[in-house]
Amino acid sequence: MSYKIIGDSCLDLTADLKKDPHFQIIPLTLQVGNTHVIDDETFDQKSFLELVKSSSECPKTACPSPELYKEAFECDVDQIFVITLSEHLSGSYNSAVLGKRLYEEEHGNDGKKIAVLGSDSASSGQLNIALYIQSLCQASLPFEEIEEKAKTFIKNMKTYFVLESLDTLRKNGRLTGLQAFFATALNIKPVMGATSGVIIKLDQARGINKALTRMVEIALKDGGDTRDKVLAIAHCNNPERAEFVKQEMLKHAVFKDVIIVGTAGVATVYANDGGIILTL
């Protein structure tokens, strides 16, 4: 059976996966002041970060329209798996669900099967889910079994992140019940995680390196047996920091694979310059 894995543009793919015809990205739109940027293959991270730094307004994102998803579903494959940002971070999941409904209303029962999966995560978390689904598709499992296994994988997957600043998340209302309070005072850096897609604070440390080390400690403690897990690390404009996290993780655990990927537009908006996202 032929398949396609579709993600919104917070699914940060590796360079090789971007060339793989089994993958397709549906772009969100980024806004800084009066400037709108489409988060597609033309996204220039360096220019965007400079734009954000020069603007007094907080960057925002707008999810893809249902029609964009519907158009993506009009392809010559039998099975489609959609992986979106957490519903608590974006309306992308709801747009994909509506896009599926529009497709089915127009095309009826044409035999194509579509699963829309909210990641309860972002960036490297979506990548981890995509890689898992790809492995199941390559093993020729039935569509329904892949969908159920993917839901279980999402439920069990852990997401952690350390950012230089929580201001963008706070100003865009993504820190429900939390405050960005003292994140900059005394150089305190919170160690963050997610529960069912909702951002939570796990700990804090003084200085970015200590916060990253604490994140690693928490991830290793929560990770259990990691030998069959993929460690996915996303970084915003700081590959050295991602490599540091990788090496710290590898000092204490063995993984099926380790992947480092740079953030595209959406994750760049929320992670800010230097942010690190870890999933396993």
From TrEMBL:
The keyword Kinase applies. Coiled coil: none annotated. PROSITE patterns: DEGV. Keywords: Kinase, Lipid-binding, Transferase. The keyword Transferase applies. Pfam families: DegV. One of its GO terms (molecular function) is lipid binding. PANTHER family: DEGV DOMAIN-CONTAINING PROTEIN DR_1986-RELATED, FATTY ACID-BINDING PROTEIN TM_1468. This is Dihydroxyacetone kinase.
